[in-house]
């Protein structure tokens, strides 16, 4: 097949018929069929917004066309198959074990099951169906299940997010495409294969996870829910067995640690067994909410209603050198109570596939380092916990919120302006200056006018802030060697909780990388 890049269509001409005509004009040849490889929106000129496509076409006389054409945007379609070589020689005595069923754990389990290794997967939380009930019970009645919530349970924390599937990683192995294709095979919309900013949404992602689970089980995997790894047994720096729920022991020679960034108790247990770890920088801050229509108009101009809801990405460096940036932006979404520990409160953002809540929300976060929280391995976690305890107290167990204008002038909010929040969970008016360290609050206040220059209306006094956004990434990295193994032989740390990923796609891809290294060593 032939690949054609940089095909441009105006908004009024954006359909498959015109796309085919434009491709035939470029090739000066008829096309038998085509598939879209990539689609993006160029909105730099709001009066002339265009769609930009890359497509793969099937034609007669392919070689003749390629030889006669000198257009740099025309080339042969590359081989984009994801391929794993199984070259391992060591025979396993026991089935490999996977801890955690978030994105990295799902794809580790999927690959192991696909190639006959019959993995056993332990997930501390509930199945997705029961997890949804636990979360709704928490949002409605404020009764938390510490092991089945936004952070823990089948699918991981990313299940209750916007379901963004874009990544800046340039992966020559095509792991990213394999992840997307697997999602589509399991019920995701096919447009995630080519949209430049693909997303599934939490409603569809839940169904995809159920279908992935079914495939894993059909291929020989075993999944055990409500099963938290509470201890490991080692000998001569090798993993020998694991303990689940302080009760049942399972022999183990290969353990994939896909624990997620909120498994604070697991980090401490592993540290006691001298698993090598280090602290790492992260970021904390608040969520901000605007009317989605305002964001759309600012990003797209008068044609905003002809386009998908707009997202944004903002960055700023303060006069003190701190980075301030938007994170996990959710068009048409909800701010959600994402707590996982009693008497502590953390928030996140999520969207359904249609993104039709009417409210845009994003984390606005500020970088923090050892200078803020201390030198010990667990100082970052304790820093997060203290902020979450403050948020819980300030909001009287509910999400603390405040308008931006009141935050700026350091006064308690008593009513909303033109923005009415969309929140999953209860909330209370507060003064968020009492929550954040002054250096963090000042950094946000310095950045907001600059963000307002980039998006008209962003720094409106009526914008709503909520806190605290503390679980942006893992504050700990579990060290591993070039073979993706820890200092305790047989343990493969991977995903966001191990400190090597930052979202659904990179976590899934990191799980694949770990499997690749495993398959170079072990046979079953």
Q: Any overview of this molecule?
A:
With 524 residues, this protein is α/β, with parallel strands linked by helices. It is built from 13 helices and 26 strands. A hairpin with a 2-residue loop joins strand 9 and strand 10. Helix 3 packs parallel to helix 6 and helix 3 packs parallel to helix 13. The longest helix has 17 residues. The mean pLDDT is 96.
Rg (CA only)? 24 Å
Summarize the main sheet: 7 strands, mixed
What is the distance, rounded to the nearest whole angstrom, between the alpha carbons of the first and last residues? 38 Å
The largest beta-sheet arranges its strands as 15-16-19-14-23-20-22
Question: Helix share of residues?
Answer: 25-40%
Name the features:
single chain; 524 residues; alpha/beta; seven-stranded mixed sheet; 25% strand
Summarize the structure.
By secondary structure, the protein is α/β, with parallel strands linked by helices. It contains 13 helices and 26 strands.
Write the layout of secondary structure elements.
Blueprint lengths: L1 E9 L5 H12 L5 E10 L7 E9 L3 H7 L5 E3 L13 E2 L5 E3 L3 H12 L5 E3 L5 H14 L33 H11 L16 H17 L3 E3 L4 E7 L2 E7 L3 E4 L3 E3 L6 H9 L4 E3 L2 E10 H9 L14 E3 L5 E8 L3 E4 L9 E4 L8 E10 L1 H4 L5 H16 L4 E5 H6 L13 E2 L2 E3 L8 H17 L9 E6 L6 E3 L12 E3 L10 H16 L2 E2 L1
Parallel strand pairs: 5-26, 6-7, 6-12, 7-8, 12-25, 17-21, 20-22
Antiparallel strand pairs: 1-3, 1-4, 2-3, 9-10, 10-11, 13-24, 14-19, 14-23, 15-16, 16-19, 17-18, 20-23
Helix pairs in contact: 3-6, 3-13
């Amino acid at each position: 097949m032939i690949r054609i890049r940089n095909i441009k269509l105006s908004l009024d001409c954006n359909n498959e018929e015109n796309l085919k005509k434009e491709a035939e004009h470029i090739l000066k040849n008829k096309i038998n069929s085509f598939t879209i490889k990539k689609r993006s929106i160029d909105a730099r000129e709001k009066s002339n917004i265009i769609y930009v496509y890359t497509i793969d076409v099937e034609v007669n006389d392919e070689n003749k066309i390629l030889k006669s054409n000198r257009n740099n945007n025309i080339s042969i379609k590359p081989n984009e198959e994801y391929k794993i070589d199984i070259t391992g020689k060591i025979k396993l005595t026991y089935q490999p074990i996977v801890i955690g069923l978030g994105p990295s754990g799902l794809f580790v389990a999927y690959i192991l099951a696909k190639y006959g290794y019959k993995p056993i997967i332990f997930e501390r939380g509930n199945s997705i169906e029961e997890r949804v009930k636990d979360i709704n019970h928490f949002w409605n009645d404020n009764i938390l299940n510490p092991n089945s919530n936004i952070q823990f349970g089948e699918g991981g924390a990313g299940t209750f997010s916007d379901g963004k599937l874009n990544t800046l990683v340039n992966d020559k192995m095509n792991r990213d495409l394999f992840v997307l294709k697997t999602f589509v095979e399991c019920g995701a919309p096919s447009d995630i294969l080519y949209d430049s900013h693909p997303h599934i949404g939490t409603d569809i992602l839940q169904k995809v996870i159920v279908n992935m689970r079914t495939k894993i089980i059909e291929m020989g995997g075993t999944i055990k829910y409500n099963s938290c790894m509470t201890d490991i047994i080692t000998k001569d720096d090798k993993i020998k067995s694991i303990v689940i729920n302080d009760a049942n022991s399972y022999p183990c020679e290969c353990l994939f640690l896909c624990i997620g960034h909120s498994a604070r108790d697991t980090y401490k247990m592993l540290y006691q067994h001298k698993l090598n770890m280090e602290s790492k920088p992260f970021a904390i801050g608040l969520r901000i909410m605007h009317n989605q229509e305002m964001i759309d108009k600012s990003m797209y101009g008068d044609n905003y209603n002809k386009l998908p809801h707009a997202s944004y990405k903002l960055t700023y460096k303060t006069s003190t050198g701190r980075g301030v940036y938007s994170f996990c932006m959710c068009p048409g979404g909800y701010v959600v109570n994402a707590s996982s520990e009693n008497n502590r409160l953390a928030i996140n953002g999520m969207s359904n596939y249609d993104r039709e809540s009417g409210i845009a929300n994003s984390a606005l976060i500020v970088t923090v380092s050892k200078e803020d929280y201390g030198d010990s391995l667990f100082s970052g976690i304790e820093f997060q916990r203290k902020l979450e305890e403050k948020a819980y107290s300030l909001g009287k167990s509910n999400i603390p919120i405040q308008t931006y204008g009141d935050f700026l002038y350091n006064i308690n909010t008593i009513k909303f302006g033109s923005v009415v929040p969309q929140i999953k969970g209860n909330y209370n008016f507060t003064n968020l200056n009492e929550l954040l360290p002054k250096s963090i609050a000042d950094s946000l206040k310095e950045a907001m006018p600059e963000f307002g220059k980039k998006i008209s209306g962003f720094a409106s006094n009526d914008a709503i802030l909520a806190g605290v956004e503390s679980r942006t990434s893992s504050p700990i990295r579990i060290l591993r060697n070039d073979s993706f193994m820890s200092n305790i032989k047989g343990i493969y740390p991977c995903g966001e909780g191990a400190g090597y990923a930052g979202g659904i796609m990179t976590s899934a891809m990191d799980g694949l990388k770990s499997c690749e290294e495993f398959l170079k060593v072990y046979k079953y």
